[in-house]
DNA sequence: TTAGGTGCAAATTCTTTGCACCCTG
DNA sequence: CAGGGTGCAAAGAATTTGCACCTAA
């Protein structure tokens, strides 16, 4: 489930390239924070990421984590998802993908599915604007929660 | 675009029935707040709703608006959508529907589309849990924003 | 009548900002 | 070495809660 070494390596590489191209400095904080997001598939929120990076970098502040996450977001290196009533959550998977979200525990899992990437846009929507991305969000109860009753 | 009289009437009726069934009291505040959401298609946030209901009910407090909205949500009478980095927005359209969201101005428009309601759930996701709802979110730039450059 | 609902104000929670010092390029 | 980046502390915005009074059923 967790991104494998190779995936993480690719993401780090792209991160470094984009930063160089955009003239964004590669600081220890940014590298460590991006690494944390790139190595997780749990759509962590800012505070979770902060806790994780503190292990390598005990003095990093939460506000730097926020600043860095939104910077990475603006660079197109990570995306966000905001299940209502929860904190914003971050995701280093920038390939087209979709979500399964458990309405009970908040578990959010990515999945890729070519069919969903290629949905035919209804004319009604074409009349609203230019669609750039399509994301399907499937909601339900995960088996973990279902078991607990 | 705006829900027509008949739609609003139906929503109000359902609201009253559900409240009766669930033993939830029909207060002036609740009626007015639900009416405001039911009569809008703009996915207003709590503060927008507060401003709107104040016209009819100048003393209503923002916290009552919040409490009422989440109550309506828990009763299944309204749903929420949370575009990242924005406030939670509410929606009285509980029929299966999907969203077009402008990434520039935040415009969010509902659309119905049978094909999207009936998406075939991938086996991979069936292994995660029981899917209850499927919602497609199309993101792009609306024509209003595209024009402004 | 009476339990549930409301308004007020204060508390929380999450997130952002100003500023002086620091470090990458 | 210069300008972007960081940590700290404090501000801000959105949302929730405690409590005494009020009102729908």
Describe the structure.
The structure is a homodimer of 149-residue chains. Chain A is an alpha+beta fold and 149 residues long. In chain A, 43% of the residues lie in helices and 19% in strands. The first copy, chain A, has helices at residues 5-22, 28-38, 46-54, 62-74, 114-117, 123-126, 143-147, and strands at 79-81, 89-91, 98-102, 108-111, 129-142. Chain A has a three-stranded mixed β-sheet with strand order 4-3-5. In chain A, β1 (79-81) and β2 form a beta hairpin. In chain A, α1 (5-22) packs across α2 and α2 (28-38) crosses α3 (46-54). The longest helix of chain A is centred in the first third of the chain and has 18 residues, at 5-22. Chain A starts with a helix and ends with a helix. The model of chain A has no long low-confidence stretch (mean pLDDT 89). The A-B interface holds A 80-86, 88, 100, 102-103, 109, 111, 113, 115-116, 119-122, 124-125, 128-146 and B 80-86, 88, 100, 102-103, 109, 111, 113, 115-116, 119-122, 124-125, 128-146. Chain A binds a DNA duplex (25 and 25 nucleotides) through α4.
List keywords for this structure.
DNA-binding, 7 helices, 3-stranded mixed sheet, 149 residues, 5 strands
């Amino acid at each position: 489930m967790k991104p494998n070494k190779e995936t993480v390596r690719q993401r780090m590489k792209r991160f470094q390239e984009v930063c160089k191209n955009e003239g964004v400095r590669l600081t220890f904080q940014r590298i460590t924070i991006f690494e944390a997001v790139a190595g997780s598939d749990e759509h962590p929120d800012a505070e979770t990421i902060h806790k994780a990076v503190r292990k390598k970098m005990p003095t990093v502040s939460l506000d730097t984590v926020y600043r860095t996450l939104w910077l990475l977001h603006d660079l197109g290196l990570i995306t966000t998802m905001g299940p209502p009533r929860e904190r914003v959550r971050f995701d280093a998977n920038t390939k087209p993908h979709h979500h399964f979200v458990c309405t009970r525990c908040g578990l959010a899992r990515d999945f890729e599915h070519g069919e969903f990437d290629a949905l035919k846009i209804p004319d009604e929507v074409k009349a609203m604007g230019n669609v750039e991305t399509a994301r399907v969000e499937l909601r339900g109860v995960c088996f973990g929660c279902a078991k607990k009753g």
